[in-house]
Amino acid sequence: MDFQPTQDQRDLRAGVRDLLAGRYGREELRASVDRAAATGRTVDRGLWRELGAAGFFALRLPETEGGVGLGMAEAVLVFEEAGRALLPGPLVATHLAAGLVAGAAEGEAVVTAFDLEGPLVSHLGEADAVLGADGQPVEVPAGEPVRSLDPLTPLARSSAAGDPVAAGAYRDEGALLTAALQLGSALRTVELAVRYAKEREQFGQPIGAFQAVKHLCAQMLVRAEVARTAVYAAAVTADPAEVAGAKLLADEAAVRNARDCLQVHGGMGFTWEADVHLHLKRAWVRAEQWRTAAQAQEALAAELLAAAE
């Protein structure tokens, strides 16, 4: 049995990477940060519509409903690339709303969700619709902006967001797609660390020649590849326990890889000009979305107890 991506899947991933590289490269990423600081807006509506036209949000909708007709395995590959590029916006919620909210599939509507614990909602000020705790559209509530760790994930406090996301397929799909975003970020920070280790020199040689730096980069790669295996497997099986494990591993890989990448960069990593801090801040926020580490651990523990009975 061959579990490698098919040629069509590889072509899909390459196409999305090319689209994002041409439309949302490093200059656009930094411009988004500046725009967010000046206006509070992070979603580029033009790019959002381009993603819709490319089938990003309608990827899993049946062709009879105007979608692409693919599955979760393909969606995970696409979201991995979005995570690699640090593409901002409520990508997961808009994707899940493709068959529920008018304009979501085409990228004409921006949809967020009550995917954070407590009263916080991301991108509320830019949303045209909101998915409730059960995955169904609800009236867009009022919200009070609060400071976010990630400059490209604005948060608002809303009294209507008190209920946690309900268990079931809706929550599992949101958690798995978020894990794919985290996986893309984890893989990207490996690339950033290795590239910097080859370029930066100390004592007349690249810092990548030093064993401590080699070990850091190797550990980053192992974390990312373990998370990749878990995310891909969960996309195929759709097993709730495997989804919980994939989210747990992907969150850890994204956060710890960003920290290690920052360490490889040394003092440079702590400056605003480096992109490493953006990966770390986004990873922190995503780790709290759809399913936290504590919730994933509880789900796995329940599954183990049930299997032992």
Tell me about this structure:
This protein has 309 residues and is mainly alpha-helical. It is 55% helix and 7% strand. The chain is built from ten helices and eight strands. It has helices at residues 7-23, 26-39, 45-53, 72-84, 91-96, 169-199, 211-237, 240-265, 276-286, 293-308; strands at 111-113, 120-122, 129-131, 137-138, 144-146, 155-157, 201-202, 205-206. Strands 1-3-4 form a three-stranded mixed sheet. The model has no long low-confidence stretch (mean pLDDT 92).
Key words describing this protein structure:
55% helix, 309 residues, 3-stranded mixed β-sheet, 8 strands, 10 helices
Low-confidence stretches: none
Integer average pLDDT: 92
Give helix and strand order, one letter per element, not per position: HHHHHEEEEEEHEEHHHH
Judged by helices, strands and strand pairing, the structural class is mainly alpha
Major sheet details: 3 strands, mixed
Summed up, the helix count is 10
Give helix % range.
55-70%
Strand content: 5-15%
Give the C-alpha Rg. 19 Å
Shape, principal axes of CA atoms: globular
Main-sheet strand order equals 1-3-4
How many DSSP-defined strands? 8
- CA(first)-CA(last) distance: 31 Å
